[in-house]
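U., I forgot to send this yesterday:
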Amino acid sequence: MRHSIHRISVFFLIIGLGMILRLNAQNQALETTGDVLLIALPATALGTSLLIGDEEGSWQFTKGFLLNQAVTFGLKWGINKPRPNGEDNNAFPSGHTSTTFHSASFIQKRYGWPYGIPAYVIAGFTGYSRIETDKHDILDVLAGATIGIVSTYLFTTEYQREHMELTFHSDNNEFFFGFRYTF
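Result:
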């Protein structure tokens, strides 16, 4: 089961990084990449939980996601901070960043750092894309990242996986076989 999580995560990471490398750093391409990652990272986090049958993880993701969105949009509507590009008054906090950091921190907290590090890189790139395209300033992005991470940590626990394997041990020309069960 751990291998299928790894394969799914690597698959989506390759797709995400391929999109990033394929698109150049022009504002429209950068903004589009951030928009795609806004959908791809939460879809990967929730989709992986569903694919491996982790119903508890799916529910934890959903609770954190709903809290994240409520806090993010509540602050946007309550604060009315103008965007750096003057487009509207919904700059604080960054919704793209809060959503992608919620997803990255869920992956890290639930399934471990080997999966969390690439997810955090993608979330960080999303925050970078928002600053570079004048949608947000650094404060908006940092607030979004903080809200995303905190909303995850309130609900998410480490994935408890049961594991059984055949063991083999040799000692002074004696051979031992057995089963090891971890949970």
